Amino acid sequence: MQYVKIKNLREDHDMTQKDIATLLNVQRSTYTMWELGDVNFPILQLIRVAEIFETNVEYLLELSKNNRPAKYPKNINYIQIGNLLRQERIKRGKTQEEFADKLGIRQSSYSYYEDGKTKIPTEKLAFLAKEYHISLNQVCGEIKEDIFAI
For 53-99, what is each residue's pLDDT tens digit? Predict the structure, then answer.
């Protein structure tokens, strides 16, 4: 999975891969592999990129045209992500095996995602979001601001 939207935003902001890598505290070569889709772009780093460009994860992954900024927690809770995936799967009346088949993995591997024992790769998370219309912003723990708070 290539991250064309991220590349375009980076270029629109006159930033180099090195600039983004520095902000993410990684080597330029690591960031380059993420942007090109050669290796998994960790969801936590993707959230940081969304914050840099003042947008949201769904927009970066081209799952939404809505580029509004979103707030996320500083640390990803993979157990919470797994629980949300489980809820979404059950809501759709699907089995773990059906979700696993869609992802091209074994059911036991998928169950580790739902249990939070294994971090689900961003590419697989994005696929499930697109296939089943799951809000990735919600899955990533988007913090909704209370507009009525004083």
Answer: 999 999 999 999 999 999 999 888 899 999 999 999 999 999 999 99
Q: Are 128 and 99 in contact (CB under 8 A)?
A: yes
CB distance 126 to 59 below 8 Å: no
Burial status of residue 148 (CB atoms within 10 A of its CB: 0-12, 13-18, 19 or more):
exposed
Both structure tokens of 100: 């696993």
Q: Distance from CA of residue 145 to its chain's centroid?
A: 20
DSSP 93-145: T--HHHHHHHHTS-HHHHHHHHHTSSPPPHHHHHHHHHHHT--HHHHTT-B--
Residue 146: its pLDDT value, please? 54
Contact predicate 74/146, CB 8 Å: no
Token pair 């330029």 is found at: 28
- How far apart are the C-alpha atoms of 128 and 85, rounded to whole Å? 9
| Domains recognised in the chain with CATH numbers | 4-60 (1.10.260.40), 78-139 (1.10.260.40)
- pTM here is 0.89
| Per-residue DSSP letter, 71 | B
Mean pLDDT score across all residues of the chain: 93
